[in-house]
Write a structure and sequence with these properties.
The chain is mainly α and 265 residues long. Helices cover 82% and strands 0% of the residues. The longest helix is centred in the middle third of the chain and has 28 residues.
Length: 265
Amino acid sequence: MTIGQSCLSFLVSFLASTVGAVCGIGGGIIIKPTLDLLGWANVSTISFLSSCTVLSMSFYTVGHSILAGDSRVKLKTGTPLAVGAAIGGAVGNHLFTAAKNAFANPNTVGAVQAGCLAVVTLGTLLYTLRKDQIRTHKTTNIAACLAIGLVLGICSSFLGIGGGPINLVVLYYFFSMSTKTAAANSLYIILFSQFTSLTITLFSGNIPEFHWGALALMVLGGILGGIVGRSANRLLRTATVERLFLGLMVLIIGICLYNFWQYAY
């Protein structure tokens, strides 16, 4: 990457992480498709940079909230979800490596990721628009929480997005969480899944080629975005957070569809 590209990557990471911390979607669901759209690196490198950025942002946001004693994380259900997500992160990492090795053209994996992300985001948008009419549940069974976390971890790791909106929908539906509570618990889950996924990547030697300067700037952007986003989440009304979330979903669907067409054709 050139200096200009690295600086723009920092800006993308900062803005995405700010919004991600506000809405609880981690930022990766914005960073990954945006960098795919810009086309400055291959699919594996973008997934790696996105995951590192999401991990830095979630680590700061969750850690600061817990230390400050104002965390909305419900440990009774959040911890089994996070453990399941950690296991899912390992499985998703393996699936991504297998998919990458299965196709001679790396763009094929990018098309699969973009297509899956578009479908997941569209489903999330439709659910969010109708969530007031959908009966929710209050799951407390530990085994069920582990299984739900496993699925979330697999999706987030394979798609390289950290967790994204699918976490929020699951937390709304299975645990009847409010918007801001779901955001806090989503980041808690993302922290575990991304840490596991990246640890496996490091120890397995499957680290793609990347520019250290770009990584440093993106991680810095993730942390700064977490600082700003955490403060904004406390100030903004729930209705404002929900509108921001819906607007992002529409934007992300459009970018993913374009990326799918770009990679596939």
